[in-house]
Description:
The protein is an alpha/beta fold. Helix content is 45%, strand content 12%. The protein has one domain (2-340): TIM Barrel. It is built from 14 helices and 9 strands. Helix 5 (118-131) runs parallel beside helix 6 (146-155). The protein is globular and about 60 Å long. 46% of the residues are buried. The mean pLDDT is 97. Bound molecules: S-adenosyl-L-homocysteine. Residues 71-72, 109, 111-112, 140-142, 162-163, 165, 204, 233, 235-236, 238, 275, 310-311 line the site of S-adenosyl-L-homocysteine. S-adenosyl-L-homocysteine is lined by residues 71-72, 109, 111-112, 140-142, 162-163, 165, 204, 233, 235-236, 238, 275, 310-311.
Amino acid sequence: MDRYIKLIDKLYQKHTLSDAEWTSxxxxxxxxxxxxxxxxxxxxxxxYYGKDIYVRGLIEFSNYCKNDCLYCGIxxxxxNVHRYRLEEDMIxxxxxxxYELGFRTFVLQSGEDAxxxxxxxxxxxxxxxxxxxxxxxxxxxGEWERSSYQAFFDAGADRYLLRHETYNDKHYSMLHxxxxxxxxxxxxxxxxxEIGYQVGTGFMVGAPFQTAQLxxxxxxxxxxxxxxMVGIGPFIPHHNTPFKxxxxxxxxxxxxxxxxxxxxxxxxxxxxxxxxxxxxxKGRELGILSGANVVMPNLSPTEVRKDYLLYDNKICTGDxxxxxxxxxxxxxxxIGYRIVTARGDSLNI
Length: 349
Ligand code: SAH
């Protein structure tokens, strides 16, 4: 026990652990160690961000996807999905509604939808930029050529979310079709960083075949990339995927890793994800209490929410945007935090 307390102290003071240290800390975690970790993580988060919680309005604008990731409910092979694609005007009206609700960051997320070409997406970004000059525009639209990333940036996008999913090549290939690789994914991340985006990466906790050793590799990669944001959430099986019978990731491990990431990258933006809220009724509150400082409620039109299901039992699919916003505000207030109307740029620069 003492040995692991010392590792947590080292992480708190030096913001780094070796591969062997990460593996043993993750494998040997206990409820007592977690409590100690979370108190330090809250301390660090409050030093930089106080009790402020940033909100991002998530607009899931298309569920068409050319990829076939084994874990994902909107993978190409899933013929049971009702596919939709929001038109530009609809997306702009989601932004308008979000703006009025106090959102100053819009996250545009989709599957890899070939009919959303570079030009079409760049035009959309330009329009949002023109209409909402004081808002951050975040993209979460997968892998593109560097020149397209540049075009989106030039059109006005500020941030890009692209989870690395898992650092290890072999593990990556067990979760993805042969057309995708860990190396390519990481190359995209480095390119996004070079272009000047605020970059977010991350992984699923408890993904099939994941081990403490593999998570250690993920932590070392996060340290190396030093992103502005890190999104992690539990893997949750979807009934129409090859992983339908796999176990979901746990609340306990997700919280532990949130605390670790806060200590390793003190100024990083760390969302308490919808997936965390899906596996436990107080998941998002507990995420905040473990060191997270961002929530990402849904701004998608209610009609399409039930079609953007990456995993089973996703929460908030029947609610209006305003309801989601209010619900989260109350949840954050119940634990002594407050949602703020701000772009919420990362201090990790
Ligand atoms: N097409 C975009 C957006 C992906 S969806 C892209 O490639 O980046 C955003 C994230 O949801 C994924 O990166 C993945 O980590 C997560 N996700 C997908 N399926 C999931 C599942 N079954 N359980 C939990 N998270 C999942």
